[in-house]
Each structure stands twice: as structure tokens, then as C-alpha cells.
Amino acid sequence: MWQIFRDNGDELRKTIKEGKYSPSPVRRVEIPKDNGKMRKLGIPTAVDRVVQQATMQILSPINEGES
């Protein structure tokens, strides 16, 4: 997975800084519930998840007034 960031990290950072980043569609799966019904689950790509976490680490202190 880290090979993706080594190969495309500069381009990823550039698209984020330019405001052109768009996450990939999530993988949709259904998982069974205890009552026999199915629950929909969306799984983001690894790159999108890393971008989400990095964004959260920057914005959370700002939102909480800890900047």
C-alpha cells in the first residue's frame, strides 16, 4: 500500500492543495445482521482513508479551539 504514496504522493498533495481532490467511490457490501436482514456498508479506498485521517488531524484541533 505504501508504494502508492511513494509513487503518487506528490500528485496527491498537489490535487489536495489545489482543491481538486475527489475521493474514489466506496466499495459497497452488505453484511448480515442478527435479525436476518442485511446492513449496507461502505468501504473507502486506503488512499481515501489516509486523506480522511490526515484532514481530521489538522481540522480537529482547529474545531476544538486548540490551534
From TrEMBL:
InterPro entries: DNA/RNA_pol_sf (IPR043502), GrpII_Intron_Splice-Mob/Def (IPR051083). This is Uncharacterized protein.
